[in-house]
Design goal:
Helix content: 40-55%
Number of strands: 8
Radius of gyration: 23 Å
Strand content: 5-15%
Order of helices and strands: HEEEEEHHHHHHHHHHHHHEEEHH
Low-confidence stretches: none
Largest sheet: 3 strands, antiparallel
Mean pLDDT: 93
Shape: globular
Structural class: alpha+beta
Length: 397
């Protein structure tokens, strides 16, 4: 009789696979959850569903051919990845980049940050049932993609820029599209915020959900909006300026509790700050060249290839990957759309990296995900994941 009673009193847990392929997980993620009804008792995150091995692929390619690989990390803001890689190589070879190229990079990187944050914040709203704002704000992301397409011919995986600067100057059509976006986007963003920010359902679903303290965030290695939402104003653009970010005035928004609502609000404010930076870059755009004088890394103009022997030789060496770089070891990081994106590069003087490691912010966030959802409801776990903006492309690089 006693045995039967203890059997009935024993907790019965169930196991639930959250992902790896389900629309609510926003990518290829698997989390094996131990559930007590709808409450998450425990969680185990797994990675490895993409198997792209970017770092090892990069160690078999010449430096200029690694740019398309970086596109596939956080593909929501791939131009930032491109620029970060270019600046890493430029640091290794000691290249000085003209101010105009640096300002052009700033404009592209801030547009990319806005596009990235649009995806994250609108998806948080969708997960609370607000579909209208998502559809409304996505048209502005489309305009950003049209700017990228005008610059480089691609939209998502952009391959923008070159080692040494930009491939070409912004055309009048690019400037027209940038001005059009800067004129219209503030109105659209304000409308979205009016719809969502103080919406009672949205606030009830996001405040005190999926929170993390600043101490725990630092222990895990958080950076970017997820760390700033927890209360620390660390931003690579300010802590270690690159590409002339020291020339620009902007604020670093921070949160207090590190919950889903704070992460949403920090990204929202960062979009306003990005527009502030772009306005300054447009207003103070320097004259001059859009690329450095690096003939051994920067493809010469096509007309020179057909008429000058030296240009033909450099063209051949760059395209065939026969340009060696100096021996050395460098680390360079940029403020990616989702946090500090770093490149740790070791060169042995050959034509491709001897070793290359990507510091991917999403890989770090995903380690903290089980602790952030433990004890919460299953429906809140979806919101927590979308507010962390974990991009699967950065997990198994």
């Amino acid at each position: 009789m006693n045995n039967t009673s203890s059997t009935y009193e024993k907790k019965q847990y169930s196991t639930l696979n959250l992902g790896p392929t389900h629309p609510a997980t926003h990518g290829i993620f698997q989390n094996v959850l131990t559930m007590d009804g709808e409450v998450i008792v425990d969680a185990v995150s797994t990675i490895g569903y993409i198997h792209r091995a970017f770092e090892k692929l990069s160690e078999r390619r010449p430096y200029n051919q690694i740019t398309p690989i970086t596109d596939r990390l956080n593909y929501c803001s791939s131009p930032i990845n491109n620029m970060g890689w270019h600046m890493t190589v430029e640091k290794l070879i000691g290249a000085e980049i003209p101010k105009r190229a640096q300002y052009m990079r700033v404009i592209i990187m801030e547009l990319s940050r806005i596009a990235d944050h649009i995806v994250c914040d609108t998806v948080i709203a969708v997960d609370t049932g607000a579909m209208t704002g998502f559809l409304h704000l996505f048209q502005y992301r489309e305009w950003i993609y049209e700017i990228f397409e005008e610059i480089c011919g691609a939209r998502l995986t952009t391959n923008i820029g070159r080692i040494g600067g930009m491939e070409r100057d912004f055309s009048p059509k690019v400037w027209d599209k940038i001005h059009h976006f800067m004129k219209e986007f503030p109105k659209g963003l304000a409308e979205f915020q009016k719809l969502v920010d103080r919406n009672r359902i949205f606030m009830d679903r996001t405040i005190n959900i999926g929170g993390i303290s600043v101490e725990d965030a630092l222990d895990y290695g958080f950076t970017g909006p997820n760390l700033r939402a927890a209360g620390l104003d660390y931003d690579v653009r300010v802590a270690n300026p690159y590409s002339s970010y020291q020339d620009f005035q902007f604020d670093i928004p921070v949160g207090t509790s590190g919950d889903t609502y704070d992460r949403y609000m920090v990204r929202m404010e960062e979009m306003w700050q990005s527009m502030r930076i772009i306005e300054q870059a447009i207003k103070n755009m320097p004259d001059g060249s859009y690329h450095a004088d690096l003939p051994e890394f920067y493809l010469p103009p096509k007309q020179d290839v057909y008429s000058k022997m030296e240009a033909l030789i450099y063209h051949f060496k760059i395209v065939m990957g026969e340009t060696a770089v100096p021996k050395g070891e460098v680390y360079h990081s940029v403020e990616g759309g989702n946090g500090e994106l770093g490149f740790y590069l070791i060169s042995d003087g050959g034509r491709q990296p001897f070793r290359l490691h990507f510091r991917r912010p999403c890989f770090i966030y995903y380690q903290a995900y089980p602790s952030m959802i433990r004890g919460g409801m299953l429906s809140d776990a979806i919101l927590t994941m979308s507010s962390m903006n974990v991009i699967a492309g950065e997990l198994d690089a």
